[in-house]
Amino acid sequence: MLLLLAEAxxxxxxxxxxxxxxTLRAILAALTAxxxxxxxxxxxxRRLTLRQIGQNVRDDGPxxxxxxxxxxxxxxxxxxxxxxxxTLLWADLRSVFVWVVVGVTMAYGLIGFADDYRKLVLKNxxxxxxxxxxxxxxxxALGAGVILYLRADSPQSTALLIPYFKNVVIxxxxxxxxxxxxxxxxxxxxxxxxxxxxxxxxxxxxxVGGALGIFAWVAGNAIFARYLGVPYVAGAGELLVFCAAxxxxxxxxxxxxxxxxxxxxxxIGALSLGGALGAVAVVVRQEVVLLIMGGIFVxxxxxxxxxVASFKMTGKRIFRMAPLHHHFELKGWAEPKVIVRFWIITxxxxxxxxxxxxxx
Length: 360
Known about the structure:
By secondary structure, the protein is mostly helical. It has one domain (about 25-355). It has helices at about 1-10, 20-50, 75-90, 95-120, 130-150, 175-195, 200-220, 220-230, 240-255, 265-285, 285-295, 295-315, 325-330, 335-355, and strands spanning about 160, 170. Strand 1 (about 160) and strand 2 (about 170) form a beta hairpin. The longest helix has 29 residues, at about 20-50. It is globular, with a radius of gyration of 20 Å. The chain starts with a helix and ends in a 6-residue tail after the last helix.
């Protein structure tokens, strides 16, 4: 929005030309989202507390979690508001990619809102059924996949890039659409499973989102994309602004979500942020790199799958409790230790993912 204003005013006042630079707008988007989250956070927490929209805690989990019962949740509303306002202000709204990722993010937020509302306000412990959530997630991801497939202007735009290998790509053709659905839905649910400890999910989201922003910036620049051997996706650079907004809003939310948390993001935050990461990765053709950088999300998801499969087939559990973070808690790790160590692992994995830009 402000980009259009800057373009109109530049002929009159040359200083406005600075706002046309993508990197500056990304920095301003991050700072705007951070400011919104920090300023509105206390008011949101008071409102959630007043309405008694508090966390329900399982009595079969770690005993230390029982004290978290009643902590305000649905704080993901704050994240979504900060992302939306910041993106609308600083991104180029003529980019179809911006609208696709914003659409996926907000639509997944609505799914999470419906689930949280049923569980926390209507006191229906089941919320949305797994089938209902999956149906709507798939439908939204399908719409995004079809738009991106029809928008593709080269075979590379729908091919699977294998990182660390020069010119190794797998043409997907129309299979790009179901593949995009898998990535978006899978990432959304993986982040949701990770959101079980104070700040555990939001910091990896910030780190991975920031790294995806770098990939978007490279993919949207024909010269850099050619030099680094990544698919050139015209217009994808604008997603740097969106990713910066994710990072800024995430850091602002972490201010209140850090241990001991004053507020939880709930499904409205976790599902939407996961969907956002998946959608950006699909646009910039870095799905495998997302798998690497989001290794914590992957490990959490795989631990649940292994636990369920093992119990159904043998009647025995592999982990003391799933997802994985609960296993380490029950082994005696303090909650802050689990959180920070998972953050450290994410930093390492993000650096490994970023190295794919040069190692080929």
